Amino acid sequence: MGSEEERRARELRALIDEANYRYYVLDAPTIPDSEYDRLLRELQDLESAHPELVTPDSPTQRIGAAPLKDFAQVAHALPMLSLNNAFSEAEVAAFDRRVREGLGREDEQIEYAVEPKFDGLAVALHYRDGCFVQGATRGDGYTGEDVTANLRTVKAIPMRLQDPNPPAWLEVRGEVLMLRRDFDRLNEAARARDEKTFANPRNAAAGSLRQLDSRITARRRLSFFAYGVGRVEGGALPDTHAGVMDWLAARRLPVSEARRQVRGVDGLMGYFHDLGEKRAGLPYDIDGAVYKVNRLADQDILGFVARAPRFAIAHKYPAQEELTLVEAIDVQVGRTGTLTPVARLAPVFVGGVTVTNATLHNEDEARRKDVRVGDTVIVRRAGDVIPEVVGVVMERRPMKDLVTPLYPPFRMRDTCPECGAPVVRLEGEAAARCTNGLACPAQRKQAIIHFASRRAMDIDGLGDKLVDQLVDKGLVATPADLYDPAKVNKAALAGLERMADKSAENLVQAIEASRGRPLARFIFALGIRHVGEQTAKDLARYFGGMAGFMAADEDALMAVPDVGPVVAASIRAFLSEAHNQTVIQALDNAGAWTDGEAAARLAGPLEGKTFVLTGTLPTLTRDEAKARIEAAGGKVTASVSRKTDFVVAGAEPGSKLKKARELDVRVLDQDELMELLKGVSES
Ligand code: IVH
User: Fold this and answer.
1) Helices (H), 544-680
2) Cβ neighbours of 569 (radius 10 Å)
3) Which architecture characterizes domain 89-316 according to CATH?
4) Which residues are part of the catalytic machinery?
5) In the structure, what pLDDT confidence band is assigned to residue 407 with cuts at 50, 70 and 90?
6) What is the third-level CATH fold of 413-602?
7) Is any ligand 1 atom within 6 A of the Cβ of residue 160?
8) Cα 82 to averaged position of ligand 1 atoms, centre (Å)
9) 448-474 pLDDT, tens per residue?
């Protein structure tokens, strides 16, 4: 057959496959959704008019098929094994030693291919003559489940390899997972419909892949990353793992951008730390790094022990989720009076620290998760994020079958736990608030703790416990009192619990040193609702001085980039309050801040220009580069868009560089950046 329809169907498939690849694998879409939909519809129409044109690899086959009764079993030609784990540098060093000994190359630095350990589930994809024909879960390693129909719906998986001369048989192994943004969307939608949510992206991916109705899977947006190959016939592959990964990538299989090659234990540990730093910023969850001896011939020599290879190991980050017991649920009062339910937990080691409290966010969230005293809960601590309760293990609720449960569902209190003032919850807001403002000691304490914090006035040594005592003893009621020597002095401080003469002296000095901080820090330190660090910087740069800022009405405030009506109203409300004006006046008398110059007068050479940083610069740290750009009037943002003026790229840049190239954004190296900055001193 060589009809016009057949030619057009082939053309449409190629266009749609290309669009899928750019969208789902490269994360850089090139055609609008409407165009994509139009192409897909045209192909669907063509195929329903000419059913003989339908091919198994057609993108129309990605929408899911009729539900199955159960999954067929698939025997793996080569078993899908697991990896041994390492939790410390010593265990990594022991692994490397075993590798060197096993290869009889004790004195060499072995080359390793290193990559993230994806937190999803393992699958095998089979391509016959370059065409996707079957996919299976890992199962018990020897036999898995046939989830072909479900895997067809995963748009990141190519239905045909980009290869004019594909192997007769190729088994690709990798991990199916759900990107965090897709997970958030899925849970949000479930919540809106009052349905069950998934505890984490891994569970969501597993639940979605193992759907007997693949039309449900199709709606779930799963992703895939390849990390190896299984059975290969009728084709020659590169002789290193890194080479195989590149080879797969060239055939349009998604492989991790974060893969590298390193040598020896130092190289492995360096990668582990770098990846750890990138971890929170990755679009998907990982639970460690995987190290593989790079040369495949060496892998063969090393072979396997029991069910794990000797040539590879998983180096795990500390677990980010653990189970523990809820001992109580308290309500905490925040800086702006927000009441937050907090679960008091039996101490548990998670994410590298011991956790005893976890936030339940707000009343709705606490009730949705239905957390009660006595419950066993999953606690999660990821990166520097505040620990949170992910969900309750319902099977472990004590006496859960009683008609009258042991503890009732959580209910927010009507009065503030700290000052007894009434609590309100405004229409459309998730948070309940204490109505007592700074007359509430808890709000007062939080306001002072925030004022002194590192990114605000940076008063070293003024921690929570000390602020508690200062406020409780009536020494300090506002941030301004900190600078009043009649209230805060060495003698008064030395009289407090856990304060010696030396630490009292140090604190007095730290308070002194904080006088005259730049305006941006001071504005941030005031703790105005909705005014974070970046907004404070924008305001300081725009107004230059505190007087201009205090005089600005809402319209004037909204002239500042990124300040909208909500932020402007919040600032106005704060600055109009008599109490706040008195405190600011007292802080002025204490010389707490130094005005800068208004933007209009200063107009740095990079005024109005937006920068994005990616990769490691030769000498400047990220923070230094950011500070210099900002000192010159420029702005640094996190992601590349059409509004970005420059992308500053260093070694090992991420996808931002690719994005910059696609959007035709000018890319600078450090030298070129320095050229632009010429004549601007550091701030
Ligand atoms: S290689 C023979 N590489 O970890 C070794 N596995 O404990 C085969 N996994 O079932 C596995 N990321 O689901 C490998 N980059 C990666 C991985 C990875 C995640 C999972 C995989 C496997 C388990 C082994």
Assistant:
1) 546-551, 554-558, 565-576, 578-589, 599-602, 622-631, 655-663, 670-677
2) 15
3) 2-Layer Sandwich (3.30)
4) 117
5) confident
6) DNA polymerase; domain 1 (1.10.150)
7) no
8) 6
9) 999 999 999 999 999 899 999 999 999
